[in-house]
Amino acid sequence: MRLHLPWRSPGRPDIGAELRYHEEMLAEEREGRSGAAIYARRKLGNATYIREEIYFMNHAVFFESIGQDLLYAARMMRKNPLFTATAVLALALGIGANTAIFSMVHAILLSSLPYPQPDRLVKVWGQYALDGLPRLNMSDPEFFELADTNRTFDSVAAYYTGGGANLGSDETAPQRVTRGLSTASLFPLLGVKAAIGRTYSQEEDQDGHNQVVVLSYGLWKSSYSADRNICGQSMRLNGRPYTIIGVLPEGFDFGGNVQLWSPLALSRTKPGNRGFHVWDVIARLKPGASLAQAQDDLHAFAGRLAKEYPNNYSRDKGWGVYAVPLREELVAKLRPALLILMAAVAFVLLIACANIANLLLVRASAREKEIAVRAAIGAGRWRTVRQLLTESVLLSLTGSIAGLALGAWGLGALRRFADAVPNIEKVTLDSTVLLVTFAIALLTGVVFGLAPALRLTRPGLHGSMQESARGASGGRSGRRLRDSLVIAEIAFCLVLVTGAGLACRGFYQLLRVDPGFRTDHMLTFRMTLPALTYPPGPAVSRFYDQVLDRVRHIPGVQDAGAISHLPMAADYSSGSVFVETSNSRALLHIPRTPYGYLETDQRFITPGYFEAMKTPLIAGRVFSAADSSSAAPVAIVDSAFAATIWPGRNPLQQHISISTVPSSTPPRPVWSTVVGVVAHVHNTGLDQQGRVQAYFPNLQDPYDGARGMTVVLRTASDASAVLNSARAEVAAVDRTQPIFDVRTMDEVVSASLEQRRLSLDLLALFAGVAGVLAAIGIYGVMAFGVNQRRRELGIRMALGARPADMHRMVVADGARLAAIGIGIGLAGAFWLARYMAPLIYGIGTHDPLTFVLVPVTLLAIALAASSIPALRAGHVEPIEVLRQD
Known about the structure:
Layout: H1 15-30, H2 34-44, H3 47-79, H4 81-110, E1 121-128, E2 133-136, H5 140-149, E3 153-167, E4 175-182, H6 186-190, E5 196-197, E6 212-215, H7 217-224, E7 234-237, E8 240-247, E9 260-263, E10 280-285, H8 291-308, E11 319-325, H9 326-331, H10 335-366, H11 368-376, H12 381-417, H13 431-456, H14 461-470, H15 475-511, E12 522-528, H16 538-551, E13 557-563, E14 574-579, H17 584-588, E15 596-605, H18 609-613, E16 617-620, E17 634-638, H19 639-645, E18 655-657, E19 660-661, E20 668-669, E21 672-678, E22 693-697, E23 708-715, H20 723-733, E24 740-744, H21 745-752, H22 754-788, H23 790-798, H24 803-832, H25 848-873, H26 878-884
């Protein structure tokens, strides 16, 4: 008959003996002993059943023993609540930090893009590498020629997401929305279909037929109450009627926070300006085409352009065209910081593991007698190791549960404070993150539990029992292992704290950079005038003149002005500026032309702008109301421009140009006289010097680009206090004109540093946690060492040693461990510091002050952590210790 084994069988005979009996019978049957086979069948039935029963019994015994191990481990955790709480807290900090940062790394760096076959999507860039332009958008003719002549792309699309539009009418309050423009090929290229309605067609992507829009899911819900009959309804953008033809799916965020899309309507028939590099270009590789093949194709394309249009595309300036995988393009700026943070939390986890391993070693010393007794009554070494590893793994799993809660809280905090991180709201604790957390928990349980388990089950049990009975320290090997773990903690901590120190020092240097203007007491807001109601001509300048005149009379406003592209507001504008010089070939590397030109940041400003920004005037004058459209063209350059183009010469009365006389053949530059020199301004960020700069009066803008301006107000006190008054004054001029992007200048500069500040804050937080864990580890080892050496210390005191001698001895031990850890950590910090370059500004990756201050600080922490046990060592009573012995 068959055997039926319960999960637990305390009343049954010895299961191991029964298993051996069955195995012997099966062996005899295999060897042909018919009597044994007959007996086995007679007593137990068919041999197949016997094998099944042995299989089930083996597994039952295994799972029963695992269950016993888990129950015993739980009892040990409950029996030592202080030890359990300390270990779980350390693990929660390490695993929680890893969970939060890995969630970001997984969502931003590792997850695939939400488009079909995302690996075939690439971003296409032009470049003038030798002119400091490694990434250049494409112009109209460049896009069409690329789309028509390439051999490796299925489709190519152009788009622009840096604009917006005024949504509303005379009857409704004006609202500014972000607007994307694209060719009709964009959505099919991405494989995106409208959730409601459709996207626009090739016929609608033509001038005169392009007044259709596709709404984002968010705008559809917020402004149209999720009306499913929205298609066919009309809306007004910049005063023009548009027809809503579709709604994009929820979660579609290509190009950032774009609220609606409309056709770009590029024209093949009208001659395009090859210098108007404004369109982003994306492409999808053909099936079977590789990125390397696409690069070769683009290199040939760039060569054809340089051959056909030598005055536009010069190889001497490093002209070229190349492709970057779209995922790489989207995460390139975030990858260095995220990988540095991932390394930081890995160090925190390693320090936590070393700390817990030390705690387990301390506890193991108290369990040596118990383990020796287990071995003496027949427990095998690996059976005991399994029990001890079960305890450490259960401890790590408990810590991982607390770490998940801490990681979820940390992600919530990151979502609130990390607005500069793209798609941060989509970072969640998904199944992949949970699996990785579980794997980390198992791995850490084995890592910090294996060394104590192997040491505790080493041979020589009789000697261990004797040492335990005498209260010895567990031998030199145990002490060496504990010391090694403390040294590892200090080394890891020094690497992490040094990295944080370098980042802090770099950030401090960054904050000391002079941006070229003052940020205090400044309010900024932007306006863009629609061409329908403000056609090119005096209407645009008249509007801004009226607004500035009114806001200057607001109580508390000291100065006011306007600029086409505000510094540090992620609002860029650059172009070629011609310079009248007879030495253009040597100076600017532009051959075969009588004029030299270079790429500059171009800004159009109103009178009063430099006064409001407090940008220093170095030479000449600023613009005035006399610099009108009918006056002689004038310009102001920055100090970097003057030093680059006219070194050692007076830049005033020199001539530069950004436009040409349309009727002349060949085109002849319209020269502007330089009337002033101002300080260089950090337009793109404090950490970037930026290009040279040229300023022109808004009334002399040849491209009608000054209809979009940012107004800056300098106030006597709180800048935000004048916002309502400024809004009312704008409405008094034109109540349909919304103001948007309202910020103080301090907020503008702070936003440009947000990603760097977030990385620094997290790195400093993790470094602080590592320092605390290292201090706890040193204290624990020193305290345990003092407790285990009480007999030795008592004898020393009885022989005449003074308390101060005991104090110095213990502190010296702590200093010795710290010095070794610091030495190892410095070597690692020097090696790893080079990877910190993206977070360091102005001091270099081997800053002497940081590499001196951090080790000294860690040594001081180690000495402080050793001092408390050292004080206890100096108060050992020899008589009491010897009497106890």
